[in-house]
Write the structure tokens for this entry.
Amino acid sequence: MWKTIDGAPSWKPLWDDFPEASPAVGAVAVAPSDPKIVYAGTGEINIRGNVATGNGLYKSTDAGKTWRFSGLRDSQVIGRIIVRSLRRQHRSRGGARTYFRRQSGARRVPLNDGGANWKKALYVDAKTGASDVAFDPNNPKILYAGLWQAYRKPWIMESGGPGKRPLQVLRRRRALAAFERRGLPDGILGRVNVAPTSDSKVIYAMIEAQEGRPLPLE
């Protein structure tokens, strides 16, 4: 992971002198409320034969100068981090709710403590994780997530599965509460990426689907 402070002509490495963390960084996010607060998720998101797994989430409060472990030690792969700033009238009530994407296992969301503690909010099975996650631009309490059943073996890569439940774009209606499934076609679906728009009724999804099987237009 690298940082520039002059608009890209020069770069400084931030991860080389941090031996505790995995060398592979899969996701980086800066807190909207404070540019000095940076989250880094370890592990490579692309599943290949020689993929480098991670060892959790790390957090910096000084713009990347120093880092500390911030949970999710067994996540292996964190490929997306988004941070919601919780603004209150009193400074002591501030905090951040952080969401992350992982390649296998469960996606988790934390309590309102900036990633110090985590609570599992969704679990399908050991092969399925969230391939992408995004806030609704009009309402940060609504979270869209694409699920991906993926499993890498030494002799084969499995991407996608037959079940409907683990292969859906989900809409999160309440903070740390239930999810609602959104209709997608039957059959094998793989990696799903989601992109909400300024119109909450319009959501784009890039979906790995069976060849020759069109998605419904409605």
User: Anything to note?
Assistant: Residues 1-108 form one domain. The CA atoms of residues 84 and 159 lie 30 Å apart.
